[in-house]
Amino acid sequence: MNNGQTLVIGAGVGGLAAAIELAAAGRKVTVLERAAEPGGKMRQLPVNGVGVDAGPTVFTMRWIFDELFETAGSTLEAGLRLEKADVLARHAWRQGGVLDLYASTDRSEQAIQEFSGKEDALGYRAFCERSADIYETLREPFIASSRPGMLELVRRVGFGNLDAMWRTAPFSTLWSALGDHFNDPRLRQLFGRYATYVGSSPMKAPATLMLIAHVEQEGVWLVDGGMRAVAVALKDLAVGLGVQFCFDEGVREIVMEADRAVGVLTEEGRELRADQLVYNGDISALGTGMLGAAVVPSVKAVMHTQRALSAITFCMLAKVSGFDLHYHTVFFAEDYPEEFAAIFGRGQITEYPTVYVCAQDRVGGNIPQGPERLLLLINAPADGDRRFRDPQSLMQFRGNALALLRECGCELEFDEGSCVATDPRRFSERFPGSGGALYGHANHGPMASFARPGARSQVKGLYFAGGSVHPGAGVPMSAMSGRLAAGAMLEDLD
C-alpha cells in the first residue's frame, strides 16, 4: 500500500472515479474543483428555484459503476436509486411517424415492423446482432483497458480473431453501414444519432459506433434525483474513503520541477504539493498553456477543426400539450446529412435541427399536470471562443426548435423567466480549453478512436482522466477513464 499524496484536478465523473480508486488503494487524495459542486458537465441549473438536469441524461453501462462501488466496499444500490427504463426513447418525425425503442429487442422489432415494414424489422434484428458482436469484441481490449494502438488492439483481440476485428467495421461510416440494414431513411436517422453521443457526425464516424445500440439494450437507467445524484453519490463514496474536496478552488498552474509535475498553484493563491496528479479536464487547456507553459508538452491540444460537437440547451419549466413525451424523446426534421454538413462544414446550425427533449419528471408512468422540468438540446459547432455572442440568435434557435416540436404535434407553454439557455460560448467559459466542445476530439475516420490520449501523459507524475481522453466521451466512459488513470498510477508506483 502506498499512502503518498495525490491531487485530482477537477471533480467531473472521471476525477471522482480516479479519487475513489486511489483512496481505496490507500492513497491520500485531495480533489480541487473550480465549481461549487461535483459533477462537471453532469450538473443541474436552477430554473425558478427548481434544479433541471443540464448535461448528460442517460445512465448506461452500470457494470462500470457496480465495480467502482465494489472497489470502495459498497454497492451501487446503497448510493443510488435506479429504475430500469422499459422504453429507451421515443422518436418523432416532422414528415410523420412516431416510434418507440424498447429495452426488449423483440418489442422493438415488432414496433419497427408496424412503423416501416417487415424488411426493416429483419434489418433491425441483424443490426442488433452486429452491434452486440462489435461490443463484445471491443469491451475488454479497448473500452476497459489502457489505450492501445491499432496493432496492439489487434494483438489484444487475438490474431486468430481477425475476422471479429474486421466485423467492427472501422473503415465504414456509421451512415453507410446503417444503409445495409434499413431502407426507411427515418431509421437511419434514429440509429445514426448514436454518433452524436460522442459528439460526431454519423456521416464521418466509424460504423464501430453501432456498439452503442447494444449498450442501450443492456440497460438504460433512470436515476432518482437526476444525473446530479450520480455525482453526489460518487463524492459521498469518496469522502467515506477519506478523500478531501476543495470546491470553488480552481487550478491556475501545474508546478514542475525538472521534468516532473510536483503540485499546483490554485486560483486562491495556494501552493499544494503532491507525489502524483490526475488532471480531469479538457486536455486542450494543458496543450494550449492554460495551466502553465511547463506542461504544454504533456499533450497535444485538439485542433479547432477536430473538435467534437457542442450544443445549445434550454432548461425550462413548461406545460406540455398535444404530444405524449417520454423521459427521452427525439424530434427529427427531414435532412439529417445537411444538419452535420452545416455544423462541421460551415460552422452553422441548420434551420431545423434535431431536437432532443429530456422530460425529467416522467418517471414510472408519471404525466405531470402542470409545468414540468424539460431539457431541450440541439447540436451546435464547437466554436464557443468566437461565435454565439448575440442573444437574439439564441432566441432564433429556440424558436426553430419549438417550431419543429410544434409540427410534430408538441406544444410547450412557458414564461421567459422559466427558460435558461446555455450556448457554446458559455460551455467554453465553464470548461476551459474546450472551445465549447462537449466531447473532446470528434470521432471521425477509422483512426479517430486512437487519437485520444491515454491515462499517462508525456510529463512524469501527471495522469489524465475525463471525456477528452481514452476511452471517450459519456458518463460511463469518463468514469472508466478515471479508473484507468488510477490503475496506471498505481502500476507505475509499484
The gross shape turns out to be globular
As a whole number of angstroms, the C-alpha radius of gyration is 22 Å
Strand content: 15-25%
CATH topology-level name of the domain at 5-41 and 226-302 and 443-493: FAD/NAD(P)-binding domain
Strand count = 20
What's the total helix number? Answer: 16
What summary fits the major beta sheet?
A: 8 strands, mixed
CATH superfamily of the domain at 5-41 and 226-302 and 443-493: FAD/NAD(P)-binding domain
Rounded to the nearest angstrom, the distance between the terminal CA atoms is: 9 Å
- CATH top level label of the domain at 5-41 and 226-302 and 443-493: Alpha Beta
Estimate the mean pLDDT confidence.
92
Show unreliable segments: none
Structural class: alpha/beta
Describe the structure concisely for a colleague.
This protein is α/β, with parallel strands linked by helices and 494 residues long.
Structure commentary:
- This protein has 494 residues and is α/β, with parallel strands linked by helices.
- Among the domains are: 5-41 and 226-302 and 443-493, FAD/NAD(P)-binding domain (3-Layer(bba) Sandwich), CATH 3.50.50; 104-218, no CATH class.
- It contains 16 helices and 20 strands.
Keywords:
single chain; 494 residues; FAD/NAD(P)-binding domain; 16 helices; globular
Secondary-structure map with pairings?
Elements: E1 5-9, H1 13-24, E2 28-33, E3 44-47, E4 50-53, H2 62-71, H3 76-79, E5 82-84, E6 87-93, E7 98-102, H4 105-116, H5 118-143, H6 150-157, H7 162-167, H8 174-179, H9 185-192, H10 211-218, E8 221-223, H11 228-240, E9 244-247, E10 251-257, E11 260-266, E12 271-273, E13 276-280, H12 283-287, E14 310-321, E15 328-332, H13 336-346, E16 355-359, E17 372-380, H14 391-407, E18 411-413, E19 419-422, H15 424-430, E20 462-465, H16 475-493
Parallel strand pairs: 1-2, 1-13, 2-9, 6-15, 13-20
Antiparallel strand pairs: 3-4, 5-8, 6-7, 10-11, 11-12, 14-17, 14-18, 14-19, 15-16, 16-17
